[in-house]
Recover the amino acids of this structure.
């Protein structure tokens, strides 16, 4: 079978999905998938609309059925689906029922291996049960933690079954060629196409990558590993990061004191002191590693513990910035030197270096606990903290938020509004 590009529409809204599907079809998409969130928000009607709008294209209903296989396949097939996805985790009886129902309504079954532990064995069983396609799938939530499609398992599945094997899960114009080389017949792409500012070009680029077996450069939907977090956080704003953390992580009352556009990214070196005592903050500078951010807990004190000479010392050491739950001084000089600084207060007066407190233990700043090594990101909106144990996942989710906003921005710029693009009134929470 010729390699197929299946574009997955994982939106909540039918109108946006249909518009983006039209752009993807223009760019050469072969198959169009009604994604699971789309079907769950709009119902099977969206499958009907896709069939009506793109009659020459194979329509996939990503039902991810887990039970009542026959009924769900009947619903999707009657709405126009040519292929219906059933979870590999479902009981054999559900898969058998789905296959029988698909034969009755003229559709086919694709088994989705998301969450399956022995994917090779399950693929062999699924083929025996009569399914037409296998889909090796790394879910979006798994991708955020750094998982990607395992080439070795793909190769094993391809060698063990005779039906076409699809791959899904964060596939980009860079990764598609190696998956085809490993034997995949169907490339399922969601984010790398539907989050692109220009969906038509992104689809064309994916088709080129598939036809030539050569990567085409693209940054959309790239996933970042634990050694690439600086790069990832540099692509997201503090607002994006807070959204990715379900609107948490914000240091309350900590205000940027920088030139507009200043961004700070680094790992926390925590310091605790008392009001006006600048000994530990200044000693911490000598203990810091390049790339650290000093985070100073002064319990909200209003006498300065940090000033311009400390800031110059930080620059000498390669420290990325300072965050103070208390007061800073010499802001005119610090502003001019471009050293990122965030604090609760800016005042002229300091006190004596007495030496209370400590360096490198858990502290409170802006109402949140900060641990040494947590990621600290600051920009014109304020400061957020990302716990180090969740940093890879939050970095990827933050970039995802930024990319989805980039796409929405393009739609607004064509003359629409945020409310219209998101169909806000229709989707308000029911109270
Ligand atoms: O099936 C999918 C996911 O479970 C949400 O419904 C996606 O369509 C699939 O993963 C493809 O999307 P990307 O991973 O963004 O390429």
């Amino acid at each position: 079978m010729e390699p197929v590009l299946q574009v997955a529409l994982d939106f909540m809204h039918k109108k946006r999905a249909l518009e983006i599907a039209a752009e993807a079809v223009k760019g050469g998409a072969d198959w169009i998938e009604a994604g699971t969130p789309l079907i769950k928000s709009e119902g099977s009607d969206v499958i009907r609309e896709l069939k009506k709008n793109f009659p020459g294209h194979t329509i996939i209903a990503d039902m991810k059925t887990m039970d009542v296989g026959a009924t769900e396949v009947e619903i999707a097939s009657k709405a126009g689906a040519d292929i219906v996805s059933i979870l590999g985790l479902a009981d054999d009886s559900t898969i058998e029922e789905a296959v029988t129902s698909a034969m009755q309504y003229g559709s086919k079954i694709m088994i989705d291996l998301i969450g399956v532990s022995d994917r090779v064995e399950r693929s062999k069983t699924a083929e025996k049960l009569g399914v037409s396609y296998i889909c090796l799938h790394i879910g979006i939530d798994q991708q955020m933690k750094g998982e990607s499609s395992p080439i070795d398992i793909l190769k094993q599945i391809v060698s063990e079954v005779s039906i076409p094997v699809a791959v899904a899960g964060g596939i980009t114009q860079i990764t598609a060629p190696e998956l085809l080389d490993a034997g995949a017949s169907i490339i399922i792409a969601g984010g790398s196409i539907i989050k692109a500012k220009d969906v038509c070009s992104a689809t064309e680029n994916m088709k080129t990558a598939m036809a030539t077996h050569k990567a085409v450069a693209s940054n959309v939907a790239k996933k970042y590993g634990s050694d690439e977090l600086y790069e990832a956080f540099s692509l997201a704003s503090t607002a994006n990061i807070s959204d990715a953390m379900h609107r948490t992580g914000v240091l309350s009352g900590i205000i940027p004191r920088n030139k507009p556009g200043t961004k700070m990214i680094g790992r926390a070196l925590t310091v605790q002191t008392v009001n006006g005592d600048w000994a530990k903050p200044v000693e911490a500078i000598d203990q810091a590693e390049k790339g650290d951010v000093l985070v100073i807990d002064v319990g909200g004190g209003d006498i300065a513990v940090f000033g311009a000479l400390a800031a110059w010392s930080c620059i000498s050491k390669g420290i990325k910035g300072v965050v103070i739950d208390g007061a800073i001084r010499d802001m005119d000089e610090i502003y001019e030197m471009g050293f990122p600084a965030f604090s609760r207060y800016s005042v002229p007066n300091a006190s004596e270096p007495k030496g209370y407190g400590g360096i490198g233990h858990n502290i409170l700043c802006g109402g949140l606990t900060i641990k040494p090594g947590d990621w600290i990101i600051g920009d014109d909106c304020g400061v957020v903290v990302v716990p180090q144990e969740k940093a890879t996942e939050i970095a990827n989710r933050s970039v995802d938020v930024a990319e989805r906003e980039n796409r929405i921005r393009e739609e607004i710029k064509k003359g629409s509004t945020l409310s219209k693009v998101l169909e806000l009134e229709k989707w308000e929470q029911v109270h």
